[in-house]
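Deliverable D5.2: sample structural annotation.
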Amino acid sequence: MKAISKHWARIAVTLLPLFLALLHAVGMLPIGVIGQLDNAIYDARLRATSPKTLDKRIVIVDIDEKSLAAVGHWPWGRHRLAELVNQLFEQHHIALLGFDVVFAEEDDSSGLKTLKALADHELKASPEFARALEKIEPTLDFDAAFAKALASRPIVLGYYLNQGKASGVLPAPALPLEALQGRKLPSTQWRGYGSNIAALAAAAPRAGHFNTLPDADGLVRSLPMLAEVQGQNYESLSLAMFRYLAGSPDLRPGFTSDRFFSRTYQTVDRLLLQVGEKSLAVPVDERLSSLVPYRGPGGPTGNSFQYVSAVDVLENRVPADTLRDKIVLLGTTAPGLLDLRATPVGEAYPGVEVHANAISGFLDGKILVKPDYALGYEVVVLLLSGLILAFGLPLLAAPMAVGLSVAVLAGLTALNFWLYTQFGLVLPLASSLCMAFTAFALNMSYGYFVESRAKRDLANLFGTYVPPELVDEMLKEPESYSMQATNRELTVMFCDMRGFTKMSESMPPTELQALLTGVFGKLTDIIRSNLGTIDKYMGDCVMAFWGAPVESSQHAQLAVKAALEMAQAVHTINAEHRARGLPEIGIGIGLNTGVMCVGDMGSHIRKSYTVIGDAVNLASRLEGLSKVYATDIVASESTRKQAGAMLWQELDKVRVKGKDQAVAIFRPMQGTIEGSFTTQDALKLWGQFLKAYRAQQWDQADVALLNLQRQDATNALYRLYVERVATLRLLPFDPHWDGATNFETK
């Protein structure tokens, strides 16, 4: 929860695409590009998974350009169509014939109508003309000849629906009103129609409309299975032909139950055909349309269905077995007859083949389904994937965030494709993909433009103070660091270069600069390698501290370690200086641990990340005492206690200027607390000396000092205390003396 709370702004930004996608899914904020992308995904998936094989059950008799050239322009005389029908049934024994054309007007091409007008008017007085007309009338009534060819045969006529006038005769409604159980279907509504003339409709009562419903982009992806005209529901050509093949069972609606997240509470998601004890279902969407399962490219060369030229049938040039027991659709591919459609598998797709694909899908039981619960699926998938990304991406580095996003995108695509291929479910995918990609893009953009800028600002702010290791640590949680002043227990160091004033008087400025830069460069590297924060350079002094801005429980230990390494580095530097003829240097280091105020103590013009407080002042005083006690390092008792298992020598108790309380001061020894036998012996003897010294037992103190000097005659600390004992011996015994040395100067 802590990690999440730190990234609440980034999480909120990543949740924005999820919110917009949900509004799109429920229809409150339709986003056109998502719908277009869903269509593009559907089309690509349809093309990729279509079988691209020949369905031998269905044959298309094509009124092609070859037939038009041989027989004449369309419409043909009904007597030629009667010949065509007779040929198909009598010579080729087809199973079913469907017409993707309509015969909305009577055929006057024989001249019979003109002859009858003459018999009724100009030649009314001629009985010979009347007898001759009566004799030849059956041969000139092309509609009657065509109706005779249609009668009592498995034929389904076609017609179209429109929003204009009504003409012709409609077939019986496919779905009686009583089957609706008092409910209204959400089918497309039409005011008019263009159907077949009465004589043909009576001869072939089965008929279906061949209307298509192009989507917003103009592509035909589905066919309306039922359409409403004047309050009645009529079936499509493909459904009417399939119903005949199934034995002409009654059609009834399959109502959905009240599903949660259903787009409508009382609608139809399937049309049911009861064939014996088996119920066949034709899936439909909210418009009572079925998706067309295109088999592949269309036309005579598409290899989805076999095409036979109509003129070849008329002239008996088609092999007998080509059409035997086949389902035949009569339509046209001639461009001039304008029955070409834009579909996902072709921009000039024969309209007749659209219906052939639908029939093929019905026969195979492979009609794709847009289930009524698609909204629920979309919402659940959006929520799951969106929340995973929203709460996962802000916590991950860029490579891991890319991996998570790719995994989510791949998972969404794989799940959707699996449901499509295994169950024929067409479910929304574009909203999830757009949401996931946008969430990733916004998350990365926020990270780059907001958090990265904050990190760059942090690095610029602290980069000159703290070592790269600490900057890297700070960049993991930049919001946790600022220059806001706060009280914190830290360890502070003052390091002064001794003899600098004398050197500055005797050396040229350029040489002095080079020497100072070289020394401070090495000392600074040691401080930073021990995770210290450089506070400032003050002439010949450098100030540093440990434990801020990055907290560390080892701040005292790291400071002491750095001080020891700095003292050792000075010996190496002096060896180099001697070899080059340069003056040797010395340093004095003061260390103190305590609560101090750390933060920006600068101005609006220049920032200064520093520490202030009594604990800081004490460290500065201790640095000054290093020369008095002839040692490189002087540390307070608080530093010694927190530095861990190290070897220490207590130097004194001191009362610095401005302080009433005396503090013990120490110097760290190289090595662990065990030390060598000689060092341990010397420290034990030194402890005896301090005990005698503070008890004002001067004789015992002198004896201890004498023994110490025998071991180390050049030790300046011993000489210091020899002089002090000699001076204090002359003073009267002071019962109130606490053994501390008072320093009145800084």
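Annotation notes: The longest strand covers residues 586-600. Residues 258-265, 673-677 have pLDDT under 50 and may be disordered.
The annotation will be released with the project's public dataset once the embargo ends.
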